[in-house]
Amino acid sequence: MFFFNKKNSIFLSFMLSLGLIVIEKAGASTFGVFPIQVSFSSKVSSQVLTVRNNSNETLRFQLHTYIWKQNAKGEMQLDTTEDIVAFPGLFSLKPGQQRLVRVGTLTPVSSIEKTYRIFIEELPPEAKPNQQMNGIRILTKIGIPIFIQPSNQVLEGGVENIVISKNQINFQIKNRGNVHLIAQKIRVKGLGEADKSIFDRQRNGWYVLAGSSQPYDMKISQQECSKTRTLVIEVKTDNKVFTEKREMPKDACSA
Fold it and tell me: 58 by DSSP, 3-state: which?
């Protein structure tokens, strides 16, 4: 099982999206995968991914599939699984060549969306006789989300557990539905007397799986805190905006 915590989430996100670094010859190979998301349902149990070699050398690939979950802290957890099958699991592509990879499942649909990830990982090139490896090479590893969607989908969410203390705002985005949501934009606003804008900040969010929560925090200055009377948190998803208002506690700006 793999755990990704908040402290190194930026680094791990980079590693998951761009790959591993190994000591080898200089240069980086590139490839692309389409589509970037797979969805199964009671009527669709397989889909095709297209992997294309965009580099000028032959590339080798290996596929791995995992159950994708989030713990109480919103951290990603990956466990190996046999629910998702991908073929071929090991293949090579010449420069400019592309290959169709069939991804499928026999896992039945349930009342709650099931979530997985498939990783297409570039392998080191086969060593040639008397070949010397030097420099740095980046091996790319791309993760594609896979969803087995329920027949009746409910997209619902909200902002919970808002705590304002010592010039810091903590809150959780809770997925109350049965399918994943993506917090595309998180907006935190502070309103003063007569609803005058004191501060207005935005940040990007991420996936929140069904039944899971994603914690967030934000620092504000002492001046912003002392002038704020009402806090407004908005979460924008694909087709909904969740909004929560909270009166500023009297002791929220205590040092």
Answer: coil
The per-residue pLDDT for 21 is: 33
Residue 110 to residues 153, 178, 208, 213, Cα–Cα distance (Å): 11, 10, 18, 21
Cis, peptide link before residue 145, omega less than 30° from 0: no
| The two structure tokens encoding residue 242 | 């969740």
Record: fold of 157-247: Immunoglobulin-like (2.60.40)
Domain boundaries, the chain: 2-148, 157-247
Tens of pLDDT along 9-64? 433 343 343 333 333 333 445 899 999 999 999 999 999 999 999 999 999 999 99
Tokens 């557990």 found at = 161
- At 137 the pLDDT is 72
Cα–Cα distance measured from residue 21 to residue 24, given in angstroms and rounded to the nearest whole number: 9
Ranges of the chain with pLDDT below 50: 1-28
Domain 2-148, what architecture?
Sandwich (2.60)
Q: Rounded to 5 degrees, what angle do the CA atoms 120, 121, 125 make?
A: 135
Cβ-contact 73, 161 below 8 angstroms: no
Say how many C-beta atoms besides its own lie within 10 A of residue 226's C-beta: 14
CB-CB neighbours of 176 under 10 Å: 16
What is the DSSP secondary structure assignment for residue 170, as one 8-state letter? E
Same fold, 2-148 and 157-247: yes
